[in-house]
Amino acid sequence: xxxxxxxxxxxxxxxxxxxxxxxxxxxxxxxxxxxxxxxxxxxxxxxxxxxxxxxxxxxxxxxxxxxxxxxxxxxxxxxxxxxxxxxxxxxxxxxxxxxxxxxxxxxxxxxxxxxxxxxxxxxxxxxxxxxxxxxxxxxxxxxxxxxxxxxxxxxxxxxxxxxxxxxxxxxxxxxxxxxxxxxxxxxxxxxxxxxxxxxxxxxxxxxxxxxxxxxxxxxxxxxxxxxxxxxxxxxxxxxxxxxxxxxxxxxxxxxxxxxxxxxxxxxxxxxxxxxxxxxxxxxxxxxxxxxxxxxxxxxxxxxxxxxxxxxxxxxxxxxxxxxxxxxxxxxxxxxxxxxxxxxxxxxxxxxxxxxxxxxxxxxxxxxxxxxxxxxxxxxxxxxxxxxxxxxxxxxxxxxxxxxxxxxxxxxxxxxxxxxxxxxxxxxxxxxxxxxxxxxxxxxxxxxxxxxxxxxxxxxxxxxxxxxxxxxxxxxxxxxxxxxxxxxxxxxxxxxxxxxxxxxxxxxxxxxxxxxxxxxxxxxxxxxxxxxxxxxxxxxxxxxxxxxxxxxxxxxxxxxxxxxxxxxxxxxxxxxxxxxxxxxxxxxxxxxxxxxxxxxxxxxxxxxxxxxxxxxxxxxxxxxxxxxxxxxxxxxxxxxxxxxxxxxxxxxxxxxxxxxxxxxxxxxxxxxxxxxxxxxxxxxxxxxxxxxxxxxxxxxxxxxxxxxxxxxxxxxxxxxxxxxxxxxxxxxxxxxxxxxxxxxxxxxxxxxxxxxxxxxxxxxxxxxxxxxxxxxxxxxxxxxxxxxxxxxxxxxxxxxxxxxxxxxxxxxxxxxxxxxxxxxxxxxxxxxxxxxxxxxxxxxxxxxxxxxxxxxxxxxxxxxxxxxxxxxxxxxxxxxxxxxxxxxxxxxxxxxxxxxxxxxxxxxxxxxxxxxxxxxxxxxxxxxxxxxxxxxxxxxxxxxxxxxxxxxxxxxxxxxxxxxxxx
Length: 966
Prior knowledge:
alpha+beta; 5-stranded antiparallel β-sheet; 17% strand
């Protein structure tokens, strides 16, 4: 392979036209050469075999003719037989051997022929080729007795002449074929090379002139045409970016000029401040150097004390420092020279050093001078030991640092002044952040209003990008505002009662679309022991959660992010919670973890460009966690993910179980409401609003179709319910086992386990719990199904379900039914028999080949099911258009495989989707296909599938505008 690669190395720098020509000529030439070589080889082999057979047959005939002559010993007759070989022009010599191998008769084509080849053996009949001749021998046998042997020598010149003539013919044919191939190759290669050469010429011209207005020409429909179109699109993008960059450059230049003027004055002031600071530092450094020079030359005050801290030696400048002579110090303890409060404090510090036999290093203490002055001393000493190694005292030196302390006090005052200036700067920054937020809110509001106008899809995309960018900028401004408040010392926590688990759920729901866009799974777990309501700052608690979960989603792709809230410590009035956010993202190197919680810092500076961000989020989260009485930390391994955690301390809200005489009160727009109202009890004259009740009701929605799931989820969430979802019956069963739900909405047909089977198992668990623990809550289960056949309701009720709701989902009916069972689980089914009987069978299919100008969607009905939200309607329709082609492909595969059960299930799913989208024609086509599958008649299913596909194309081409008409 390497030799072949080296052999073709010269080929890589040749033009594409010559490459194509070379490839085609090489391929044709090799193919023709192999074919002609095989033909020549076959012809030569065939001629040689034919000549061999002819010679052997001639020898046999000659041997038969010589038999009588050999029997009668008539040599002349044998010679006459050999003379007949003149009819064979290829025979140049022949002879007949007798039984004793003597030559009885000979034949020569020419009298003077002497190039006779003696056979190697004459003991058997055979034909062999040697050199220029073909040799054939044949024994003459009579009754098993050899009377003689015929030997024939034939010339191969005829065979060689024929072979040479064949080679000439084959060579001529090969040459003509190569010429034809060359002519065709020259024409065909231009089809490929010409547009590529034009494209290369355009690219070269753009590179030389930097003129991005040039465009490559060509309207081909093959890959080269696609390459040309993509190249032109790339030039369009580059040209638009150049224009944007040019405008941005002009803006930046004007800003730079303005900022340069501002910075010039600031730099002058800073330069003066730095010069003054350097002068102070130089003076301090000179003072220290002078102090150390004096200390080293004079020894300052050198002393020794025994184990009782009594001076046994004192020398140096004791008088200059304290006004005592060295002899006056000896015999007194070091604590005698200290003020009372200082003596008590230093006694403990020095005793600790003596107990551990540690050196006294740079210990500052105050001593009382003879004239009453307070002198600051810097003490250094080393422990002394006697001959037995026991502690015997200290030897050290005291330095007078009173002046230095005075300088430090002045420096501290200067620092406080600098911090005051920095605080003023932070207050200014906070004020400016507020001022910036006002026009930013106007920008975002105007973008919202603009998006509600009649726009094209491209304009909607531009508005969305602008709105997203404005939101990002507003988040940055909010972070800067928080940072400014922290620096200015004006950051305070609010104190109010809030729902702790609901706050976590809100964050998960808010960041769900971001996680879905990055193909991440979000998981949320709450410790059952955690109190539901606490007193604290919900806004700042939510801010920490959004920072941590948002970072986890941002740095994770095709993975999982898990939020866990558990109780770490609990007391009568307080509870300490531990929150952790784990992800399977890119992780953080160990040597960069220390930078995470610093202001304006990220683990890797390149992340700011790749993932965006100011580097303030974690620093602010750290400050918030500490203000909440907790701490924050991180555990991470590069390439395997990270786990951020923090703790917070909240005041526990007393519940009726912990304090019977003062039940907790909930607050809403109507005032204080007792907790008992939420548990089903009623107080005279008081009534809870639906939104208040729904906030504390949990609904499990089990639906395998994503579009139907989003329909119901949108309706329930907007109504105020807290909703968990499951995509199949097994997941619904697991969720019902682990969680406590007020209502379960169960689709009847789901993968893994259908809704009826899941309901049966849930009822079995409830009966087991009732038998073990007495009365147990029976959760209402409402069936959701696209079937409207008579008897379906009875089948669902007999299967353990509480009530029945047919698709398409009507928002009002859904909320009415959920409200009824959420408030009173024992409520009786409200669907009367007359209602069921009004739907005796599936609606009759519509005529599919209708007017193509009529919209396939009932817009009014669809808007009603979307709660009047055109944005939600557009999102649902976009998902429908994106997912249905895959469903149609699965239907086609199921029909071709003859899998009626699979076809029926898929058609049923499509029917439910079309029904919810008010696409009646598509629903009718799906009903027809589903019925064929139920009957097991898939012979006409492809025709029915074509109807479904035509209706879907109509839906795809007539998607309603996402915004209302103005």
